[in-house]
Amino acid sequence: MNNFNKKGFIISLEASFSLLMFSLILISISFPINESFKELIIVQQENDLLKIWSKKFPTEEEIIQDTKMLFQNASIFLDEKEIIIGKKCSGNSLANEAMIFDNQLNEKNIRIIVYLDC
């Protein structure tokens, strides 16, 4: 009967040691930060700007100021007129576009492009 208890103790000790090693390995692994959250935030900020602009129909200067507050490197297209904020890069970018109508139903196309890799 003593021999049986000794075997059980060794097996449970080995299992405990294995679980401890597995836990230490999991803790030591550093997971990379997911960049998609950064991209998601930028897309949400672009959408928020377009929503605000669709309600208050701002001037060109107000559009530029709003964009400068949020983004370092971006391009704004106002009815095909390009305004560059910061620097224009050829790497990854995120873009959003909206068609905005004022009270007299005048149409204005606005496109925001935010450059990620500058």
Report on this model:
With 118 residues, this protein is an alpha+beta fold. It has 2 domains: 1-31; 36-115, 2-Layer Sandwich (Ribosomal protein S3 C-terminal domain), CATH 3.30.1140. It has helices at residues 2-28, 36-56, 60-70, and strands at 74-78, 81-85, 93-101, 107-115.
State the end-to-end CA separation. 72 Å
> Element order, helices and strands?
HHHEEEE
Adjacency order of strands in the biggest sheet: 2-1-4-3
Instruction: Provide mean pLDDT, rounded.
Output: 84
Task: Supply the helix-strand structural class.
Answer: alpha+beta
Helical content band: 40-55%
Q: What is the count of distinct domains?
A: 2
Give the uncertain stretches in residue-range form. none
Task: Describe this structure in a few short sentences.
With 118 residues, the chain is α+β, with helices and mostly antiparallel strands. It contains three helices and four strands. The longest helix is centred in the N-terminal third of the chain and has 27 residues, at 2-28.
Which helices and strands appear, and what pairs or packs with what?
Layout: H1 2-28, H2 36-56, H3 60-70, E1 74-78, E2 81-85, E3 93-101, E4 107-115
Antiparallel strand pairs: 1-2, 1-4, 3-4
List its traits:
alpha+beta, Ribosomal protein S3 C-terminal domain, 2 domains, four-stranded antiparallel beta sheet, 24% strand, rod-shaped
